[in-house]
Amino acid sequence: MMKATQPHRSDLGVLSNLRHDIPAGIAVFLVAVPLCLGIAMASGAPLFSGLMAGIMGGILVPLVSRSALGVSGPAAGLAVIVLTAIQDLGFETFLLALVVAGIIQAGMGIAKAGIIGYFFPSSVISGMLAGIGIIIFIKQVPHALGYDRDYEGDLSFFQGDGYNSFNELSHILNFITPGAIIISIISLVILILWELPVMKTNRIFKLFPGSLIAVFVGILISQLLRIFYPELTLETEHLVSIPVAETSADLLSQFIFPDFSQFNNPQVYLTALTLAIVASLETLLCVEAADKLDVDKRVTPTNRELIAQGLANSASGLIGGLPITQVIVRSSANIQAGAKTKASAFVHGLLLLITVMLIPALLNLIPLACLAAILFVVGYKLAKPALFVKMYKTGMYHFIPFLATILGLVFTNLLLGIGIGLVIALLCVLLENYKVSGYYHEEHEDKTFIIRLSEQVSFLNKANILKTLGRIPDHSKVVIDASDSRYIDYDVYEIINNFKAEAKRKDIQLKIINLNGYGSLEPVDKALLGKNNNQSTVYDSSVSASEHN
Fold first, then answer.
1. Which of 136, 273, 319, 437 has the fewest Cβ atoms within 10 angstroms?
2. pLDDT for 294-324, tens place per residue?
3. Cα separation of 442 and 451, whole Å?
């Protein structure tokens, strides 16, 4: 009788992994709260809109998506687009555009447009992760020191307060808050201790994520400072600030609905198309990055993900929320917290819903300095020095795009940084392709030059092949062997055919093997080729010359 196959641990059911997913969901929830609020503020939208987007991204997306560890919510990369759209259309009309954008995005998934996500090189994805890690670390320094004027979740180099990521670090020295520094240092110490192996193996400590303990301790210290050291009390600007509804009527009044009367406004559809394309691109990038961080190496179906994101965006627009994408900051925090399934994303969304509806005042006690310490750890893990060493060892054609992506992200923004990385990666591919078109060496016994063409020879290899043929001296023996080639571009085929005439002029004995055309070539039986040259087209200039004579 055949034994039942044991399921791989990445395929285990949701219920069996709740001991991992619930703590991870709590950790992501703590990170998501200030990000939802900060992105709403940067987008020129009501704070409640950011929270609604976080709730829809946390609850609806996991129900449809098959991303094991990705977490969705409002994205900083869309903030400028949203701000402009709200100013041009008004918030209610913008919500209508978001509903349409969701429909377009779902349609893209149905049309199999998710395949675009597979065209991003791993060097660029690794650079994106490291770059975001560095940005998170830099951006949290002001919050850790008590300077909270720039919104949480900002990933752009140039900030809304008129400073950039670096010169703000000197500017904040005039606004240091001692109480915030105390809380951030103690929170960071707790988080570092929670990372020690002895803590990870203890069952009691495994029940509570370090981020939750850090938040509780941060709240406790904040309240103690208020009682015993009033001069160190944190002001409201240094704390989480969720809108608090006094009654159920106040809560319902915060929901804003689309203006469907603007359905005939062409600007609605232009905005919707822009949102759908940019949101889809950000999602596909984050899907690739999250899958790369997954220890079980599960692969997210990208078309299904676009459908899930589209449904969530339309739903978010219907209740007054912001655009949603899968977000790498939340996803990486989720993975680092030990999540095993998409239940952790659902837990984070459920917690957002419960706290926003029932206990918002409790969240407003959380110091931003405490959350900055949590994000310090997230940022460091994304940009570990070991990652740079690993990428360096893969070779310069991978390391250079990796560094270019990092610098692009740090000094511009997410999408432009990725674009810079892709351009550099493409140039590196062209250079690498230029060098590997053929294998060239000289046999010293009879001074025969052998050029073996690679499996794929495109027009990009023209320069290298011309250079190789150009340095062959007169009165030589040359073999151009295309036995391994499966594709030869016409431009290369033409160059080699032209070299036949040059070979006769320079008294070069030229033999060409298996170059019986261009485009796709039939594979060669090499065993027979050695015995019988008729297996493949062989051109020999010395034979041709003797026949001519």
1. 273
2. 998 899 999 999 999 999 999 999 999 999 9
3. 9
Which residue reads 């259309």 in tokens? Answer: 89
The pTM assigned to this predicted structure is 0.80
Q: Are 497 and 465 in contact (CB under 8 A)?
A: no
Q: Which residue has the tokens 């609605």?
A: 268
pLDDT value at 177 more than 90: yes
Position 484 scores a pLDDT of: 82
Cβ atoms of 441 and 452 closer than 8 Å? no
pLDDT for residue 531:
47
Which positions ≥6 away from 381 have C-beta within 8 Å? 133, 332, 336
Query: Residue 28 to residues 10, 121, 145: CA-CA distances in angstroms?
Result: 20, 28, 22
User: Nearest to residue 544, comparing CAs of 517, 493, 509?
Assistant: 509
| Whether 517 contacts 487, CB under 8 Å | no
Structure tokens at 409: 């992200």
What is residue 252's predicted lDDT score, i.e. its pLDDT? 86
Report d(CA 185, CA 49) in Å as an integer. Answer: 32
Which of 11-25, 103-117, 163-177 is most confident?
103-117
Instruction: Quote the CA–CA distance of 363 and 355 in Å, as a whole number.
Output: 7
Angstrom distance (rounded) from CA 400 to CA 496: 33
For the chain, what is the largest distance between any 2 Cα atoms, rounded to a whole number of angstroms? 109
Helix (H) or strand (E) holding 319: none
CA distances, 330 to each of 30, 33, 263 (Å) = 10, 11, 34
Distance CA 28, CA 188 (A): 17
Q: Give the SS3 label for residue 328.
A: helix
Per-residue pLDDT tens for 261-275?
999 999 999 999 999
Residue 105, pLDDT above cutoff 70: yes
Residue 166: predicted pLDDT: 84
pLDDT, position 485:
84
Rounded Cα–Cα distance for residues 154 and 40 (Å): 11
Which residues is 439 bridged to in the sheet?
Answer: 452
Q: What is the CA radius of gyration of the chain?
A: 30
Euclidean distance between CA atoms 392 and 129, whole angstroms: 16
C-beta neighbour count of 310 within 10 angstroms: 26
Coil, strand or helix at 6: coil
What value does the mean pLDDT take over residues 49-59?
A: 96
Q: Are strands 456-457 and 487-488 parallel, antiparallel or unpaired?
A: parallel
Of 366, 385, 384, nearest to 183 (Cα)? 366
59 token code pair: 């609850």
Q: Concatenated DSSP letters for 89-101?
A: H-HHHHHHHHHHH
523 CB burial (10 A radius; 0-12, 13-18, 19+): exposed
Q: Span 50-76, mean pLDDT?
A: 95
Asked whether 160 and 168 are in contact (CB, 8 A), the reply is: no
Distance CA 514, CA 453 (A): 10
Q: Quick one: 284 exposed, middle or buried, by C-beta within 10 A (0-12, 13-18, 19+)?
A: buried
